[in-house]
Each structure stands twice: as structure tokens, then as C-alpha cells.
Amino acid sequence: MHAAVVVCPGSNSDRVMIVAFEDAGAKVSMVWHKDTELPAGVDVVGVPGGFSFGDYLRCGAIAANSPICRAVKSHAERGGYVLGICNGFQVLCETGLLPGTLLRNAKLKYICKAIDLKVETSESAYTSGYAEGDAITIPIAHHDGNFFADPDTLAALESDRRVAFRYVDNPNGSLNDIAGILSENRRVLGMMPHPERMADPVHGNTEGRVLFDSLIGSLQTA
Amino acid sequence: MKARVHVMLKNGVLDPQGEAVRHALGSLGFDGVEGVRQGKVIELDLTETDKAKAEASVKDMCEKLLANTVIESYSVEIA
Predict the structure, then answer these.
(1) Per-domain boundaries in chain A
(2) Is CATH 3.30.1280.10 what the domain over B2-78 is classified as, yes or no?
(3) Beta-bridge partner residues of B9
């Protein structure tokens, strides 16, 4: 099982994402934004949190147009798995791999704290280790996490059960309390909270580790 | 040739920054400001000399990078 983690200038959650993938049993390669191809045989690409390219223009917009992201897009279009966390979620929305976008938090504050999430579906490689309705506590750390999509897109996300996680107590104004969504084929997940920061007993709990274990576990048996 | 691009949030998209500016104007004593919408202006220096071609090219730039059409509208002025 081979994972690649995308690194751009300003990425800051790349190392901890690598640790989470490795702890779940994956071999991990780092790929630089100027790379034009993913290493051969990559099963899953992680797009980590941070402030890629200083959040210039819009969060994730510059990274989404970097050479490596063209390769990530082709990987997803071939049915590959892509996990975008925080800034990674913003990047995936900007590439068009996921619908909608992330606006400035409704109360304009940068929020950094552990919050409660509800697992909305266990029907994905990422969430199969949870039960639907599970409440988990993992951290958020963002200024622009306010999920927005037009009414038709939102209705489609709901009816296709593509909302993976919802906030119990909406911290940022996201429509329908959305914290994370899946692509149509359920192989691309974007989420604002950081499961990789609740993946080791020293973090406080390991409720985020379940996501990495589920993903790597289901890819190993596939 | 120069191009100026105006990027604004679409109607119906909440603009909390504009709303914060409106509140601040009120507290400075500027009454009668019913709404504030904040956007951005991007100026481009182009080598293109044909106005129609320049406009088409800048619109393409807007669609691909300068605006996120999920939430933003744009207008292009060529001068």
C-alpha cells in the first residue's frame, strides 16, 4: 500500500499526515508541487493542511493549479483515492474534484480547538471503521472552513449520502453543518477537521486514527 | 494593454467581511449604510494589442484561476 503526500510551500501538516499513514501500515512518498507525476503504484494521495502558497488569491487556488495537482486530478479520474484535510480540502474543491468551496468562517475568527463530529456514513473506505452516528472528537484549525455550495449541489450531496462528517455544534457557518464530503465514486474525501492530529494516544484520543486504519485496511484487502 | 478584473461574491453568498465593515462604519457614525460587499480588483499588464483577443484571454484566466465561479462573479475592463 503506497501513499503519496503532496508538499507545497506553506504546507504544515504534511509530516503528521505521513506519520498517520505510516502508523496505519502504508509506505509513504513525499511529492513536491513542481513534480509532474506521482510515483508509480501510488494507491492514495494525501493533500495536507497548511497555508499552501500563503493562501494567496484564494485558499488552495494556487496549489490546485500546480503541476502535481494535475497528476493528482488524473489519479482521481482513474479511480484513485485522494484524501484532502483542511487546506487539502480547499485545494480539492479548487481543482473541481469535490463540489462547493470553503468561505471565510462566519464569525471571521481563526478557530483552533477540538470539536465534536458525527459520522454520517460508513459507506466509504475512509469511514468503514466507524459506525453511522458515531460521535468523534478531533481538532479543527482553520480560518476558511465555512462550506458553501449552491442549493442543487447541496441537495445532491445529501441525497447521495456523500456528507461524511457533520459538526455537532457548527463552529464556522458551514451549510448543513458539513465538515467533510465524498466524491461521487466515494474515493475522494475532503474534510476540514484533522484526523491525523487525533491518531496517537499522546494526542488525547485515537478517534482520527480509525480513518487511516480503515482506508489502508480496505486498500490492502482490495 | 491593461486589463482590470473585478471579482465579487455572487448575490446570495454571505459576505461576513463586508458585514463587519458595515458594522464598523456604523460605529464610526456613518449612518445609512445598508449593505457592504467586499471584492477584489486585479490589474494585468498584457502584451496583447488586440482588444477582443485580450478580453477573451482574460475571461479564460478568470474561469481558470482568478475567480472561483462557485461563489464569485467577475467583470473585465480592457484599457
Answers:
(1) 2-221
(2) yes
(3) B72
Amino acid letter, B44: L
**Which residue type occupies A121?**
T
Average pLDDT over residues A85-106: 97
How do residues A155-212 score in pLDDT, each as one tens digit? 999 999 999 999 999 999 999 999 999 999 999 999 999 999 999 999 999 999 999 9
- Residues of chain B whose beta carbon is less than 8 angstroms from a beta carbon of chain A are 13-14, 16-17, 20, 64-66, 68, 70-71
- Is there a contact between A106 and B17 if contact means CB atoms under 8 Å apart? no
- Coil, helix or strand for A143? coil
3-state helix, strand, coil in chain A (%, to 5): 30, 25, 40
User: In CATH, what is the architecture of A2-221?
Assistant: 3-Layer(aba) Sandwich (3.40)
Report the half-sphere exposure of A1 (CA within 13 A, side-chain side). 19
Q: How far is A196 from chain B (nearest CA, A)?
A: 29
ipTM for this prediction? 0.87
Cβ contact B17–A58 (<8 Å): no
Cell of A118: 458525527
